[in-house]
Amino acid sequence: MMDMKRDVKSTGDREIVRVRVLNAPRELVFKTWTEPEHVDKWWGPRGFTTKTHRMEVKPGGSWHYLMSHAEHGEFDNLITYREVVRPERLVYSHGTSEEPEQFQVTVTFADEGGKTRLTMHSVWPTAEALEAVKKYGAEEGGKQTLDKMQEYVEKQAGRTT
Fold it and tell me: What 3 state SS string does the chain have?
């Protein structure tokens, strides 16, 4: 189990922060992030598919899903929700069934006059743990995932940027 009780000021060497302004209302963006019928259509880097086994978006609830890629295989994922404030904020631990708390994520959904500023803040327990996932393309994978999310949600809203 990771220790996330470190001083917040000291996370710069072990975090990835992604920010997007989506041309879609906050409620739709939140729904797209928290309902399997939507999230299975966009979650994961390009070339990956996602199949949700269980999703209970509530404190203590979890999202168990399998990401698959034709060349790279299958990847078990488990998200455990710590905080859910609809439609403003999600805080969760992300890992696998065997290692459920590999890193912590806070996602905020800020209304900006009919658009949504989405901020995804991921923190690993150590700088070394972050460097290890970067070797497998975590930064590019996260960017591609948000690219897919933006395309999907803006299509759902009937808008594009």
Answer: CCCCCCCHHHCHHHEEEEEEEECCCHHHHHHHHHCHHHHCCCCCCCCEEEEEEEECCCCCCEEEEEEEECCCEEEEEEEEEEEEECCCEEEEEEECCCCCCCEEEEEEEEEECCEEEEEEEEECCCHHHHHHHHCCCHHHHHHHHHHHHHHHHHHHHCCCC
Angle between helices 26-34 and 138-157 (to 10 degrees): 120
Shortest CA distance to 29 belongs to which of 122, 157, 143?
Answer: 157
pTM: 0.91
pLDDT of the chain along its 161 residues, tens only?
Answer: 455 554 445 799 999 999 999 999 999 999 999 999 999 999 999 999 999 999 999 999 999 999 999 999 999 999 999 999 999 999 999 999 999 999 999 999 999 999 999 999 999 999 999 999 999 899 999 999 999 999 999 999 999 76
